[in-house]
Write a structure and sequence with these properties.
alpha/beta; six-stranded mixed β-sheet; 10 strands; 16% strand
């Protein structure tokens, strides 16, 4: 389990590396936005990826690192690897948005395509890692990744000590696990809502079952939230802080699309559907938070065509 000390250590190492993202009040939402879309790679993934790559031994890191990702974690691993001067290989789905493929290459990452599901790319990444002696940096199922993501919550509490509700998008569970862990480390009593697409209710099903459930298939406009399951490590952290979970909301693609356009039109923010999931949940009524509320805007790597719809 990730300790408070591990979270604070991660925060110290990220200072001057990752962006300390702002909280922005949006009057129509009656909530603050935590703009992780302003990170160097356009997503919160910079925190966990850098922490995981940094905590590798020099010997393990030297041959290079590899990950599997729908896009944002891959960009973050490539970015982190570039900072350490090592090779980065990113296994992406054949359906990966062009903007995210370009993002990986921008940071010097090598892209390998494999299938359409997280299971397809994980299998390919594990095979390449073994064959080429690369260090595997999972996208969410690792304590160092969770510790890095937990720094989001430390910043929220430092900037807004009276926060009562934090709303978080859910893919593999690394961010929501990090947020509950970071809130505990900060001594906050705030509660957390998770948000998933209707087409990818893996945390909803897992909490009901009391163990991670693997879905047969997932589909959504929010490509960063369509993993088939939540990770074992994130789920263990959520169970340990179960009383902190206010609920998990499901949002339709139409609500995601509307939220992307709302943030672009009303807030002048470029946000991808995964990052807009928290806004979609609030605007659609799927989440009805209590008290001072923060919506985590997890990423901004959006296909420009979506903004024109």
């Amino acid at each position: 389990m990730v300790t408070a000390e591990a979270v604070r250590e991660a925060a110290g190492a990220l200072a001057g590396v990752a962006v300390r993202t702002p909280l922005v009040w949006v009057e129509p939402l009656k909530a603050y936005l935590k703009l992780e879309s302003l990170q160097p790679v356009g997503a919160f993934k910079a925190r966990g990826a850098f922490t995981a790559v940094r905590r590798l031994s020099d010997a393990a890191r030297a041959p290079g690192v590899i990950t599997y990702s729908s896009g944002n974690h891959g960009q973050a691993v490539a970015w982190a690897a570039q900072r350490f001067g090592v090779r980065a290989v990113v296994v992406m789905p054949e359906t990966a948005p062009a903007v995210k493929v370009a993002g990986v290459k921008k940071w010097g990452g090598e892209v390998v395509f494999a299938g359409r599901t997280s299971a397809d790319r994980q299998a390919k990444a594990e095979a390449l890692a073994a064959g080429e002696h690369l260090a595997l940096v999972p996208p969410f199922d690792h304590p160092d990744v969770i510790a890095g993501q937990a720094t989001v919550a430390l910043e929220i509490v430092e900037d807004l000590p009276d926060v009562e509700t934090v709303v978080v998008p859910v893919g593999g569970g690394g961010l929501i696990a990090g947020v509950v862990t970071g809130l505990a480390a900060a001594g906050s009593r705030a509660r957390v809502w998770g948000v998933e697409p209707v087409g990818a209710p893996k945390l909803t099903r897992s909490l009901a079952a009391g163990a991670p459930v693997r879905l047969d298939r997932t589909a959504s406009l929010a490509d960063g939230l369509i993993t088939l399951t939540v990770g074992a490590a994130p789920f263990a952290h959520l169970l340990a802080q179960r009383e902190r979970i206010a609920g998990v909301a499901l949002v339709e693609d139409d609500s995601l699309r509307e939220a992307v356009h709302f943030l672009h039109r009303e807030c002048r923010l470029t946000v991808e559907p995964s990052g807009a999931a928290t806004t979609a949940a609030l605007r659609s009524g799927a989440v009805r938070p209590s008290g001072t509320t923060v919506l985590v805007v997890s990423g901004g790597n959006v296909d420009p065509l979506l903004l024109e719809d």
